[in-house]
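During the no-cost extension, the postdoctoral fellow (Dr. R.K.) reprocessed legacy sequence entries with the updated structure-token encoder. One reprocessed record is reproduced below for audit purposes.
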Amino acid sequence: MVKKILLLILCLTAISAYTQNGTVSPYSLYGIGDIRAQSTVENQAMGRLGMYTDSIHVNLRNPASYGKLKLVTYTAGGGHKEIRIKDFTEDEKSSVTSLDYIVLAMPLSPKFGVGLGILPSSSVGYNVFSETTNSMRDTVLNQYSGSGGLTKVFLSAGYEITKNLHIGATANFRFGTLEYSSVQSIDGVQYGTIDSRQSRINGFDFNYGATFTPLIKKKYTLFSSVTVNTQANLVSENSEQLGSFSVNTGEEIEVREVDLEAVNLKNTELKVPTTTTFGLGFGRDKKWFLGVEYSLQALSSFRNDFIDLPNLEYEDASAIRFGGYFIPDFASFTSYLKTMSYRAGVRSVKTGMIINGTPINEFGITFGLGFPLGGAFSNLNLGLEYGKRGTTVANLVEETFFKVSVGLSFNDKWFQKRKIN
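Re-encoded structure tokens follow.
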């Protein structure tokens, strides 16, 4: 079984090399890119709730969940997103397919469990054209493009302090390269200008979590949780090239390295503020669950000195999520449909970005299905999400997207003592 796990991880890692460009959004220019879902398909289908935990599934957002694990769990998931981007006059369609996570988790004792994995943390991917007229009435064409992203590797541990009370901690290491390019040409002028920038980023942050899930009247459970994702102190090693190019041939001419040390921009810090999340829910084990979460982040203190955009400012960010699941009959032998999990949720996000004086908000509706697989609680999970972000006012764009996600969660028993009759 261990060999199968290693083969699965190697295959998915190879696939991930081709699938990490997880966005085509112009909004990925800002901050450290588009922040990825950071949750399994099961949790994504419940409005991206991070508070629900059980003994057979991985929870990427609350490390206290690892203290509940009773079986070894290895899971992976990915998705395909169809996106429509429109402004006041035009609209375009695009799509992106990406791997979302690979995780291995295991109980080391009845009260203690650990997990480790890799997943994309943020993505940059955009290609935007604009056409303006200068003071000489010449047509000016600007092209802005970006690519890259940050990957996160993590190690988590969870522990049961007393019955129904669990705590946990996760150490995250983020790394990656973000690339930005700005190209300008003027109608009738032989040469255009190029401004190309790269940021090589790495750094740590930590996530602490706790859950308290007491029984009510012996068959119902009250779910409560809190997580604190500490400030990410990221170091960015920057470089910039300025130059010109031939409009007719595209050949670069006199492209030179900018001396960033002279302006104290060779190495900069990116301090992503702490995010705190509170959750409360109610349900019946293996039957149904409903929950709500609220997150807040003091994003108004964030800044990126190297990519300092005049039309951008930040305010405190927040999000509210509501979701749950329903299983008609977990132990049914006569109807497979009754053993399936049916999930749904909704989320509303205040991203904290203010562009051209306009706040950028996001809204999403999610649905999902869980298909039991043969043997030891393993399952296939399908998630659907429809959402919107942004607006067409203030020369901005509105994004409408539909995402289909698929996740596999396998369970196994390790470290069992062999019995000889």
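The chain has one domain: 2-412. The CA atoms of residues 32 and 405 lie 24 Å apart. The remaining legacy entries will be reprocessed before the final report is submitted.
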